[in-house]
Amino acid sequence: MLSLRRYTAADLVFQTYPIRVPSVEGNRYCQLTFCQIWENSVSSKPHRSYTNATLAALMTLARGGCYWPDCNVPIIRMIDGEPVLNLDIAHVRAFEEGGKRFDPTWSVKERNGFANLILLCTPHHKVIDGPRSNLYPTRVLLAWKIAREADGLDALEGLGDLSKADLGVMIADAQNEFLDRLGPALDEFAKTAPELASLLRTVINELTDPRVHGFGISEDALWALNDSAHALAHLQDSASMLADAANSLEHLGDSALMLKQAAIEVQSAANALSDARYGG
Fold it and tell me: Which is the most buried residue in 14, 26, 89, 263, by most CB within 10 A?
């Protein structure tokens, strides 16, 4: 079956010129226009064209910068509040025949594909394609690509097989890590407000008890903690009073007068906390 290729006007070159042919009467000539058409060799050259997925993968897996080892030039720069692309899309194997590291066995689509692309700052792009390009063969650029993208690719592949149970374990692990970091902070807090620190520790232990809420903090518990955080945000003055009272208690010694004064301050702090809690 004959296969026809569809062309646009930009793909073709038209040339017309007149010719004279005898008329049917034999004594006249008719002028006709002959049109010759052939493929436009300029427009038919392969074009650099990258899919949105390819560009997204490069931006994501580049981890923020140029693929040249130890180069800290970022992918994006902010200029007048607008993001501007700061790197070049470079080809491991040259896109055009005669270019550096050109491989004739690779099709145009493959040369435009993700496997053949890296991101480089302009100076490093010029270096790999410049007079010293022999120092940067295909295997070197591929090694840069693998080193830069390996962690991101492993993470993406891991997400593909992630189940709901796996996600639950990851969240629980993250919560446990947070609680491990919270412990020392509560220990320091206990030095000035031991009773309040003990209360907070009891609440946290209850929230994270798998016998009560299962593994991990429940959604209701998280919202409760969020509400508590907003409430505590307005207790700066009361907390300061409580801390001052605790400091007074620390230096009591045998002074009954100081004990009485500290008791008064503790009562004042308690009243302030109660007012803040119930809106009094």
Answer: 89
> Hey, is 46 helix, strand or coil?
coil
Judgement on whether residues 82 and 128 belong to the same structural domain of the protein: yes
Whether residue 273 sits in one domain with residue 170: yes
**Which structural domain, as residue segments, surrounds residue 23?**
1-45
Whether 271 and 170 share a structural domain: yes
Q: Determine contact, residues 14/37, Cβ cutoff 8 Å.
A: yes
Instruction: Specify whether the CB–CB gap between 182 and 204 falls below 8 A.
Output: yes
Backbone phi and psi for residue 235, each to the nearest 5 degrees, phi listed first = -105, 25
Residue 151 and residue 229 in one domain: no
Number of domains within the chain: 3
Structure tokens belonging to residue 181: 């970091």
Nearest to 12, CA basis, from 45, 37, 46:
37
Position 131 scores a pLDDT of 94
* Together in a domain, 209 and 132: no
Instruction: Extract the runs of DSSP E, i.e. beta strands, from 40-143.
Output: 76-79, 82-85, 88-91, 117-120
> Among 160, 188, 218, where does a domain finish?
160
Of all residues in the chain, what percent are helix, strand and coil, respectively (each to 5)? Answer: 55, 15, 30
Indicate the residue among 26, 45, 64 that finishes a domain: 45
pLDDT tens sequence across 124-162: 999 999 999 999 999 999 999 998 888 776 665 655 555
Compute the C-alpha angle 87/92/96, nearest 5°: 100
Structure token digits, residue 91: 């080809």
